[in-house]
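Note to self: keep these together.
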Amino acid sequence: MPSSPHGAVGHSDADVLIHAICDALLGAAALGDIGVHFPNTSAEFKNIDSKILLDKVVQLIKEKGYTIGNIDSTVVLELPKIVPHIPAMKSALSKVMDITEDRVSIKATTNEKMGYVGRHEGVSAHAVALIERK
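Structure:
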């Protein structure tokens, strides 16, 4: 995933997009949220690659009898500009989720210099997941 001179800080690797996708998948399957399954109080998840968490989430929803239909996501940040990186991001995420790239949508927008995102103090991401029973 793209890096920034500011970087994100979190218990894991702080990949905001992947965390939003994890929450969307877990929520769609009524399995709670990322904090329920991977608490930030656990040393096991300290500095973990969020792709590992996403893989675990995919396994959880498969165990409940679901498959992923598609993912629609948006990253909100001022910098860095991620549009050039979206094809690589889609490729990486689709591999982890074992779905084709055309079922992963990643959009990018700014916050028009408003709020903490606009002041370069943070980043936000939103995701919606369609899952289907096998």
